[in-house]
Protein backbone atom coordinates (compact mmCIF):
# COMPACT_ATOMS: atom_id res chain seq x y z
CA UNK A 1 0.00 0.00 0.00
CA UNK A 2 1.24 3.49 -0.83
CA UNK A 3 1.70 5.92 2.04
CA UNK A 4 0.32 9.46 2.02
CA UNK A 5 2.92 11.98 2.99
CA UNK A 6 3.58 15.68 2.80
CA UNK A 7 4.65 17.36 -0.43
CA UNK A 8 8.37 17.33 -0.97
CA UNK A 9 8.69 14.04 0.89
CA UNK A 10 9.15 10.81 -0.99
CA UNK A 11 5.83 9.07 -1.61
CA UNK A 12 4.93 6.30 -4.01
CA UNK A 13 8.48 6.38 -5.34
CA UNK A 14 8.61 10.12 -6.00
CA UNK A 15 8.22 13.69 -4.82
CA UNK A 16 5.37 16.20 -5.07
CA UNK A 17 6.96 17.46 -8.30
CA UNK A 18 6.70 13.90 -9.62
CA UNK A 19 2.96 13.98 -8.91
CA UNK A 20 2.53 17.12 -10.97
CA UNK A 21 4.65 15.62 -13.75
CA UNK A 22 2.53 12.44 -13.72
CA UNK A 23 -0.65 14.56 -13.90
CA UNK A 24 0.81 16.27 -16.95
CA UNK A 25 1.83 13.00 -18.59
CA UNK A 26 -1.65 11.52 -18.10
CA UNK A 27 -3.39 14.63 -19.49
CA UNK A 28 -5.06 15.50 -16.16
CA UNK A 29 -3.91 19.11 -16.56
CA UNK A 30 -6.13 19.53 -19.61
CA UNK A 31 -9.12 19.75 -17.22
CA UNK A 32 -7.59 20.37 -13.77
CA UNK A 33 -5.06 22.72 -12.23
CA UNK A 34 -3.63 22.71 -8.72
CA UNK A 35 -5.21 25.94 -7.47
CA UNK A 36 -7.57 27.20 -10.17
CA UNK A 37 -10.75 25.83 -11.68
CA UNK A 38 -10.52 24.84 -15.31
CA UNK A 39 -13.08 22.35 -16.67
CA UNK A 40 -12.90 20.34 -13.46
CA UNK A 41 -12.23 21.38 -9.87
CA UNK A 42 -8.74 22.35 -8.70
CA UNK A 43 -6.76 19.50 -7.21
CA UNK A 44 -6.41 21.40 -3.93
CA UNK A 45 -10.24 21.67 -3.64
CA UNK A 46 -10.49 17.92 -4.15
CA UNK A 47 -7.91 17.38 -1.40
CA UNK A 48 -9.86 19.64 0.96
CA UNK A 49 -13.17 17.90 0.23
CA UNK A 50 -11.73 14.48 1.02
CA UNK A 51 -9.58 15.54 4.01
CA UNK A 52 -9.66 13.01 6.83
CA UNK A 53 -11.52 10.31 4.89
CA UNK A 54 -9.61 7.04 5.11
CA UNK A 55 -11.18 5.72 1.90
CA UNK A 56 -10.31 8.85 -0.10
CA UNK A 57 -7.35 7.58 -2.12
CA UNK A 58 -9.18 4.47 -3.25
CA UNK A 59 -12.30 6.46 -4.08
CA UNK A 60 -10.38 9.05 -6.10
CA UNK A 61 -8.42 6.39 -7.97
CA UNK A 62 -11.67 4.60 -8.82
CA UNK A 63 -13.34 7.84 -9.99
CA UNK A 64 -10.37 8.57 -12.24
CA UNK A 65 -10.63 5.19 -13.91
CA UNK A 66 -14.45 4.87 -13.97
CA UNK A 67 -15.60 8.51 -14.18
CA UNK A 68 -18.36 10.23 -12.20
CA UNK A 69 -21.32 12.59 -12.59
CA UNK A 70 -22.75 15.36 -10.45
CA UNK A 71 -20.04 15.49 -7.81
CA UNK A 72 -18.62 18.89 -8.83
CA UNK A 73 -21.41 20.34 -10.94
CA UNK A 74 -22.92 19.60 -14.33
CA UNK A 75 -19.72 18.58 -16.14
CA UNK A 76 -18.97 14.88 -15.64
CA UNK A 77 -15.55 13.39 -15.03
CA UNK A 78 -14.99 11.10 -18.03
CA UNK A 79 -13.64 7.64 -17.33
CA UNK A 80 -9.91 7.19 -17.90
CA UNK A 81 -9.70 3.42 -18.47
CA UNK A 82 -6.18 3.67 -19.95
CA UNK A 83 -4.89 5.01 -16.61
CA UNK A 84 -3.30 2.13 -14.72
CA UNK A 85 -4.40 1.29 -11.18
CA UNK A 86 -0.89 2.16 -9.96
CA UNK A 87 -0.86 5.58 -11.65
CA UNK A 88 -4.40 6.32 -10.47
CA UNK A 89 -3.36 5.54 -6.88
CA UNK A 90 -0.20 7.66 -7.19
CA UNK A 91 -2.23 10.58 -8.55
CA UNK A 92 -4.83 10.19 -5.79
CA UNK A 93 -2.15 10.26 -3.08
CA UNK A 94 -0.49 13.29 -4.67
CA UNK A 95 -3.81 15.14 -4.89
CA UNK A 96 -4.59 14.36 -1.25
CA UNK A 97 -1.14 15.59 -0.21
CA UNK A 98 -1.97 19.04 -1.61
CA UNK A 99 -4.18 19.90 1.37
CA UNK A 100 -0.98 20.19 3.42
CA UNK A 101 0.97 22.28 0.90
CA UNK A 102 0.91 26.08 0.82
CA UNK A 103 -0.80 27.61 -2.21
CA UNK A 104 1.53 28.68 -4.99
CA UNK A 105 2.11 32.42 -5.31
Can you give a write-up of this model?
- This protein has helices spanning 16-25, 43-49, 56-66, 85-97.
- The protein has 105 residues and is mostly helical.
- It has a single domain (16-100), classed as Cytochrome Bc1 Complex, Chain D, domain 2 (Orthogonal Bundle).
- The longest helix has 13 residues, at 85-97.
- The radius of gyration is 13 Å and the shape is globular.
- The N and C termini lie far apart (33 Å).
- Keywords: Electron transport, Heme, Iron, Metal-binding, Transport.
- It comes from Castellaniella defragrans (strain DSM 12143 / CCUG 39792 / 65Phen) (Alcaligenes defragrans).
- One of its GO terms (molecular function) is iron ion binding.
- Heme c binds at residues 28, 32, 77.
- This is Cytochrome c551/c552.
CATH class: Mainly Alpha
CATH topology: Cytochrome Bc1 Complex, Chain D, domain 2
Helical stretch tally: 4
The major pleated sheet works out as: none
Query: What is the CATH architecture assignment?
Result: Orthogonal Bundle
Order of helices and strands: HHHH
**Total beta strand runs:** 0
By secondary-structure content and strand pairing, the structural class works out as mainly alpha
State the end-to-end distance. 33 Å
Helix content: 25-40%
Give the CATH superfamily: Cytochrome c-like domain
Mean pLDDT score, rounded?
A: 85
What gross morphology would you assign? globular
Domain tally: 1
- Rounded radius of gyration (Å): 13 Å
Strand coverage percent: under 5%
Which residue ranges are poorly predicted, with pLDDT under 50 across at least 5 consecutive positions?
1-13
GO molecular function: electron transfer activity; heme binding; iron ion binding
Domain Cytochrome c: 14-99
Keywords: Electron transport, Heme, Iron, Metal-binding, Transport
InterPro entries: Cyt_c-like_dom, Cyt_c-like_dom_sf, Cyt_c_ID
Amino acid sequence: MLALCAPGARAAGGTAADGLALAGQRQCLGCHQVDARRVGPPFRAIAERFQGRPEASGHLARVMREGSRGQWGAIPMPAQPRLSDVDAQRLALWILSLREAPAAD
